[in-house]
Amino acid sequence: MTRRDERKVSDILRAMRAEAGERVKLADIVASLGERAFGVAMLMFALPNAVGIGTIPGVSTLFGVPQIVLALQMLAGFERPWLPHWLLEKSIARADFETMVDRGVPILVRIERYLKPRWGGLTGALAERILGLVFLALAAIVSLPIPLGNQAPAVAMAVVALGLTARDGVFVVAGCVLGIFATALAGFVVLGGAAMIWLAITHFFGS
Fold this sequence. Notes:
There is one protein chain. By secondary structure, the chain is mostly helical. It has one domain (9-205). It is 70% helix and 3% strand. It has a two-stranded antiparallel sheet with strand order 1-2.
């Protein structure tokens, strides 16, 4: 019988940092998950934007698109995450990956102390499929080029994902609440940007 990998996500990230080459492919991240389910996969892909390196051109989309793919699989009831080869070949520079780990691991270590199984109905198979819709909506926002609009939904997804990994329904609820605020924030940013563009147009071309 294969021994199940019980390492915490913070430990996985530390190990990946130590073994990283010049570039870290999405395939390397998926390989590090072993037989883990969607919670850990979503957390790994949410982390770059959650810790703020999504401001690097292309990073928010690079990690947002896999989350969309995985969210659709959750909705469809897949048991294990899967990504197409062309997506697995996408990569991030080692320096950017190290920045993600250095920022994310200390936060994860503190949070992992409070994770424990509770409110199990919110982390079961049916709940996971419903949460796929939550991930899909938030991942779509992360993938869009919205100034200052990527980090908040990524944080929300990370919190929900932590809840799924530890079967902790409290974190799932907290992440969903954060997701509502993150969606509202992104909406305000988009509407505010549209309003500014409209004002500029009417100022320069209006009568």
